[in-house]
Specification:
The protein has nine helices and 13 strands. By secondary structure, it is of the alpha+beta class.
Length: 451
Amino acid sequence: MNGPRGPRRWSLRRRLGLWLAVSVAALWLAAATVAGLVLRREIDEVFDSALQEVAQRVLPLAYSELLAREDGAAPQHMAPVGPHREYITYVVRDGEGRVLLQSSDAELMDIPSGLAPGFQDTARLRTYTEAAVRGTIVVTTAEDLGHRAAAVRRAVMALLWPLVALVPIALAAVWLTVRLSLEPVLAFRHAIAARGRGNLTPVAADGLPEEMAPVAAAVNALMERLRGALEAERGFAANSAHELRTPIAAALAQTQRLIAELPDGPGQERARAIAGALRRLSRLSEKLLQLAKAEGGGLLAETPAPLAPVLRHVVADIDRQTGRGADLVVTIPPDGGPPSDLDPDAFAVLARNLIENALKHGAPDTTVEVRLSPDRFEVSNPGPAVPADRLGALLRPFERGPTEAAGSGLGLAIAAAICRGAGLELDLASPIPGAADGFCATVRFPAPPRS
C-alpha cells in the first residue's frame, strides 16, 4: 500500500529553462513592438518626403504646360511609362479649381480640391498641397493611407516572424546551456545518492558553482562525522566481543571442570544448569554483537567479490559445529555468481543467521534449501506456517514465531539490519510460495549497473 504522497518537487533545470526561454521571447516581442513604432514614424517621414518631392518636381512641369496650352484645352493625363502600380498620384489645378494636369491614377484616388497648402489627412488619403504663381497653379500629391499601413504591417511582421523560429531554438539552446551548467550539481547529487548503501567516503566537489561549494563542504563534514561515529561504534562492538567472550569462556571452562570433579547428584546437576546458562549467554552475547555490527554500518566492501566462497565456508562451519550439514541442500552457481559489493563478513553473518534460523525452527527430519543466484539469496524450510500478521514482527529483536525451539529471537532481526544497512531487500513468506506450509526468507540483491 502506498503512503501519502509528499509535495511535488520542481526541477531547477526545467524552471530555469522555461523562464529564460519565456524571457527571451518576451524581450524579442517587446523589441519588435518598439521597432515597429519607430519604423512607422520613419516610414511616415519617408513617404511625406516623397509626397513633397513629387509636388515640387511636378510644379515646374505644370507651369510650362500651362504656358504652352491653348485656352479651353481639356485636362491632360500623364500616360504611365509602363504597367505599374502608382502609389503616389498628383493633380494640378488652376486658381479656380479646374484640373490642368494629373497622373494616370488620379481619378481613381478622387483627390479633393480646395486643400490648404501643406500636409492634410482625409478619410483615406494623405495629401500634400503646394501653390505657385500667386495661387494660380496648385499641385496636390496624394497617397492611400492603406498603403502606409500595409507597409508598416509588412515590416513589423518581418520582425515578428523570426520569433516563431526563435522560440524553439531558444528553448533548445537554453535547455542545453542550463543542463551543461548544472551538470556538476547533478553529478554531486548522484554521488550523494550513491553513498546511500553505506559508502561514507567524501563526495568530490570538483566543478561545482560557487553557491554549491559550501553545501558540498557541509555534506562531506557530516559524512566524516558519521563515519567517525560508526567507526567508534564498531570499535566498541569489537572490544565488547573480546571483553565478554573471555570471562564467559573462562566461567564455562571452570563450570565444566567443576562438573567433572563433582560426584553424581544435585550438585552436579546444578553445575550442568549453570554451564547451559553460560552457553546461552555466550550465544546471546554473540548475537547482540552481530546486531550491533549490523546496525553500525561498514556493510559494503571497497572491492566487489563473489559470495559463493563465503557461503561454502558458512555451510562447512555450520556442519562442523552442529553436524547438520546433511540437512542442507545448497544450490550455488558453478561460476560463483557475479561479484557483489556486500562485505564478505556481513554476508557470512547474514547467511549464518538465516540458515541457523531455518535449521532451528524447521520441521524435524526435513531439509533446508539454500539457493544463491545472481539476483537473490534464498533460504526455505518446511514447518508450520507463520500467520501473515506476524511476519513483519519477526524482523524486530526478540520476536519469535509459533515455535517451541530454543532461541533468542535475534536471527531475523540481525538479517534485517544487515539488509537495511547494505541497501538490500529482505522478503519473508509463509507458507513457501507454491507449498502448503513452510517458511522462506529471500534477500534480493540490487541490479548491477549497466555499462
